[in-house]
Design a protein that fits this description.
Helix content is 15%, strand content 34%. The protein is an alpha+beta fold and 312 residues long. The strands form four sheets. The chain has a seven-stranded antiparallel sheet, with helices on one face. Strands 8-7-4-5-11 form a five-stranded antiparallel sheet.
């Protein structure tokens, strides 16, 4: 029996010696190669030893773009370059203020290349939460450089965003067909155009598209005397909405009028006016003028402001 046990032990030893590379794994001079990718390397043994090791992260202590362990050459890819709108020429002011400096935001949307007198849409908010969202959207707005040929588009639509600061200054951003032209004449395409959401707190009104900036304001003598010139008013200052209240204005006399390239605007008070030739109705006895109400500054406030400028 003892001889049988000894024989079995001897046979087991011989089998172990020849089971892996002709010798035990502990004494084997292992051979291996590395399987590599951009992030890690892993030993793959080429001898017969059944050894499995976990992947290891590359080490590049000398920053030569080669792994110190496996010799893997990293494929260097240039990081994406951001072209934030706030860093483009003419928009640097975004880096100098915060949303807390902004008292009001106006977003003006218009069609490009249409006749003077066409209405443009104006949306205005003084809501602090809305101001913060819009300012942040433009602050983090990324753009893509484009050629001048791509940026110079005829027709289409344009958006002007006015950031009216609490100190009275106004910062403007003009985007034509989704493209911004910086003060160096270079063009950048915006990813999108942030606007007010329907559920947010803002006021809608109209303005005039015009080629000539100023309009001449006259007072009208209700006793039949000559009209008196008062001052010139920027047409962009006129923000208005169609009057829907049940107010009878047909019998009111004209107190002032503005002469402009779009025709005459007749004022019946400091708030209400109608536009020469702009009427509604299907038959001659139903035709009547369309009345509008000023938003923001009324006529008296505009007269006070621009009369002072004229005197200066």
């Amino acid at each position: 029996m003892k001889k049988l046990v000894a024989l079995l032990l001897a046979f087991s030893s011989i089998f172990t010696c020849f089971s892996a590379c002709g010798e035990s794994e502990s004494s084997c001079k292992h051979t291996y190669e590395y399987n590599c990718n951009e992030g890690a390397h892993q030993k793959s043994y080429t001898c017969s030893c059944s050894i499995t090791e976990e992947p290891e992260i590359h080490i590049d202590s000398d920053y030569n773009d080669v792994c110190d362990v496996c010799g893997y050459h990293f494929i260097m890819v240039d990081p994406p370059m951001n072209h934030f709108l706030r860093n483009q020429a003419g928009c640097e002011w975004m880096n100098e203020i915060t949303d807390e400096d902004v008292a009001e935001i106006k977003i003006i949307t218009e069609t490009v290349g249409v006749a003077p007198g066409t209405f443009k849409d104006i949306a205005t908010t003084i809501d602090e939460d809305v101001i913060a969202r819009i300012f942040e959207a433009y602050y983090w707005m990324d753009t893509a450089p484009i050629s001048r040929e791509e940026g110079q588009i005829d027709g289409g639509g344009a958006v002007t965003v006015k950031f009216i600061l609490k100190n009275g200054y106004v910062k403007k951003l003009f985007v034509n067909n989704g493209n911004y032209c910086d003060t160096n004449g270079e063009y950048f395409e915006l990813l999108y155009i942030p606007k007010f959401e329907e559920t947010e707190n803002y006021v809608s009104s109209y303005g005039f598209i015009n080629n000539k900036e100023m309009g001449a304001l006259w007072s009208r003598d209700t006793n039949g005397g000559e009209s008196q010139f008062i001052c010139e008013i920027p047409m962009d200052e006129l923000e208005f909405a169609e009057l829907t209240d049940e107010i009878v204005l047909e019998e009111k006399e004209i107190t002032h009028y503005i002469e402009s390239e779009i025709g005459k605007l007749y004022f019946l008070s400091e708030m209400y006016f109608y536009i020469e030739g702009m009427v509604e109705g299907n038959s001659w006895n139903e035709i009547k003028s369309i009345y509008y109400q000023l938003h923001g500054k009324n006529l008296d406030e505009l007269i006070a402001e621009y009369t002072i400028i004229l005197e200066e």
